[in-house]
């Protein structure tokens, strides 16, 4: 009988790339995996199966803003605990802080190991959107529950260093890398002089989206393609209707997202370093761009900027419209793009690849469920 892993997730799983990679890795090792997700917009099947991965989605009222989120989150918490207690499982794997409480409750009642998987420094990620009291409360909950986890996983070294202050066990770093063996890039053909920039991810504040849009309008022969969903979606839609140099793609499935990146001249991974989670975070697009061999533009003062500088896979800037425009001009040179892309690919093959991360994950799970 295979060991059964129950993963808790606070998004609808459409799918979530990190969760999917980890679940697939465990399934390949002979584990059975079920994902319990939160269908906030009530638009996904309540139950589905995808090549051996079982997905069960909890439905609450519609979540369309901060107020409805606060109203419906306790309902999701309760229903996910009830579902999990009824499920047969040998370990509960909580993805991020907003499922850690549920995971802790389930692990205690069922007497099974708790795995905590920190994608972000959660309280710092949301501190600009919630009261200072709630941000401190979230931080306190994390500090209290991390020592109760049998296995702690961090999305990068910086998050791992933070969590290791509280964890009683070793923190394993499993980065959001992709399988470089299955990623290939065909150099795109461009009209003379045009440069195409791509942003794919959350359309949220503190990512210089508004500023990038304004800057691109003043750069000749430059096009910005934006994919994703979030609170700034209406802004991006509106700007795309006003100026043809701004193209809004909406939500793009992950495989298509990789194709969009491969057909771009550079990928934008700019984060405002005034937010601590931005300073220590590593966007998925960073590692994906490296594997594809496309240059990235990141921000100085962030961990992603440090990786960019150390590997030579792109350009890290201090944000300003002038610095952004200067970086675009540097990226306009094909030989510079090729060198940065090549550097990124080399770093992905040697270090930042899913094969290495998968080994780390499976080694810890074998020890945990031996």
Structure description:
The chain has 370 residues and is of the alpha/beta class. The chain has 15 helices and 14 strands. The strands form 2 sheets. It has an 8-stranded mixed beta sheet, with helices on both faces. The longest helix has 21 residues, at 66-86. It is globular, with a radius of gyration of 21 Å.
* Residue windows where pLDDT falls under 50 for at least 5 positions: none
Total tally of structural domains: 2
CATH level 4 superfamily of the largest domain: Glycogen Phosphorylase B
**CATH architectural label of the largest domain:** 3-Layer(aba) Sandwich
Question: Helix count, per DSSP?
Answer: 15
Largest sheet: 8 strands, mixed
Q: In whole angstroms, how far apart are the ends?
A: 14 Å
H/E element order: EHEEEHEHEHHEHEEHEHEHEHHEHEHHH
Question: Would you tell me the structural class of the helices and strands?
Answer: alpha/beta
Radius of gyration: 21 Å
SSE map:
Blueprint: E1 4-8, H1 17-28, E2 32-39, E3 47-50, E4 53-59, H2 66-86, E5 91-95, H3 100-110, E6 114-118, H4 122-126, H5 132-145, E7 151-154, H6 157-164, E8 171-173, E9 195-200, H7 209-216, E10 222-227, H8 233-242, E11 246-250, H9 254-262, E12 266-268, H10 276-280, H11 284-292, E13 296-299, H12 303-311, E14 314-317, H13 321-331, H14 334-350, H15 354-368
Parallel strand pairs: 1-2, 1-5, 2-4, 5-6, 6-7, 7-8, 9-10, 9-12, 10-11, 12-13, 13-14
Antiparallel strand pairs: 3-4
Helix pairs in contact: 1-15, 2-3, 7-13, 11-14
């Amino acid at each position: 009988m295979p060991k059964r892993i129950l993963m808790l997730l606070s998004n609808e799983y459409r799918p979530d790339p990190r969760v999917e990679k980890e679940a697939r890795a465990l399934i390949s090792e002979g584990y059975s995996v079920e994902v319990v997700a939160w269908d906030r917009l009530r638009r996904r099947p309540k139950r589905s199966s995808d090549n051996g991965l079982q997905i069960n989605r909890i439905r609450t009222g519609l979540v369309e803003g901060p107020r409805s989120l606060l109203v419906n989150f306790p309902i999701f918490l309760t229903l996910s605990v009830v579902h999990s207690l009824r499920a047969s499982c040998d370990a509960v794997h909580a993805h991020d802080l907003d499922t850690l409480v549920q995971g802790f409750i389930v692990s205690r009642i069922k007497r099974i190991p708790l795995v905590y998987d920190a994608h972000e420094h959660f309280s710092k990620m949301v501190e600009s959107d919630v009261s200072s009291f709630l941000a401190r409360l979230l931080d306190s909950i994390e500090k209290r529950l991390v020592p109760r986890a049998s296995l702690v996983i961090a999305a990068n070294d910086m998050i791992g260093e933070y969590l290791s202050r509280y964890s009683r066990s070793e923190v394993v770093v499993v980065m959001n890398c992709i399988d470089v063996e299955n990623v290939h890039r065909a150099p795109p053909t461009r009209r003379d002089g045009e440069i195409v920039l791509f942003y794919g991810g959350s359309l949220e504040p503190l990512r210089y989206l508004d500023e990038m849009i304004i800057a691109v309008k003043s750069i000749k022969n430059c096009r910005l393609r934006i994919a994703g969903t979030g609170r700034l979606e209406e802004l991006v839609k509106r700007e795309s209707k006003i100026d043809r140099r701004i193209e809004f793609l909406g939500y793009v499935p992950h495989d298509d997202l990789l194709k969009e990146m491969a057909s771009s001249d550079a990928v934008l991974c700019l984060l405002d370093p005034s937010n601590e989670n931005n300073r220590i975070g590593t966007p998925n697009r960073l590692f994906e761009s490296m594997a594809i061999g496309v240059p990235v533009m990141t921000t100085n003062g962030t961990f992603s900027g440090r990786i960019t500088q150390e590997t030579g896979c792109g350009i890290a800037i201090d944000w300003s419209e002038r610095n952004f425009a200067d970086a675009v001009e540097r990226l306009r040179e094909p030989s510079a793009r090729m060198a940065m892309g090549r550097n990124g690919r080399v770093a992905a093959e040697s270090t930042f690849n899913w094969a290495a991360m998968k080994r780390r994950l499976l080694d810890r799970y074998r020890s945990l469920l031996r």
